[in-house]
Amino acid sequence: KDSINLYNIPLDDINVFKYFQKGWNEDVFHFGSTGLTGYCKELLPENIEDLIAGISLYRPGAMENNFHNEYILRKEGNHDIEYWIGADEVLNNTYAVIVYQEQVMKLCQVLGGLSLVEADDVRKAMVKKKYDALHQYKDRFIDYYYTNFKVSKEYATNVWDSIDKASSYLFNRSHAAAYAITGYICQWLKVHYPLE
Description:
This protein has helices at 14-22, 34-43, 48-57, 60-64, 67-75, 88-91, 101-110, 116-128, 131-148, 153-167, 173-192. By secondary structure, the protein is mainly α.
């Protein structure tokens, strides 16, 4: 019998992603639901990043705001990918769609000059809609962005408002990554050891 280290399998197996694309997700952790199986057939995941994003986007808040479809349209080249000024490195692996809470924190650091602790405070306040707590950070974010990236105050305000709107339904990437990798391992076993 083969001895397998499940934490050392390749995460770029083309056949594994073909199974996801075809919706052959029965008995695959988290991806086996009817809804997520259908979304995989639309998303056509090609790498682990797509699986992580898929878990985060196939959730009520993201779907109500149509981010799950927007991600696919941008991935396939059917919608333009437009980054906010200075945000390309933070959003480049999600086609400029805010998908994760960690991206909100990084945007607050990079665009707003906040510390990591302050950025986490913003994330928590946005998720819980604690506007009193957010107010102090909003002004600082706008002033820093306006001053350091040479954007207009209106532009900086619009970016803050967009981040705030997205934050209420975002999932955290670390949780999604754990789910995606576990699901991938299940699918890998199904591809390579179907009888077992």
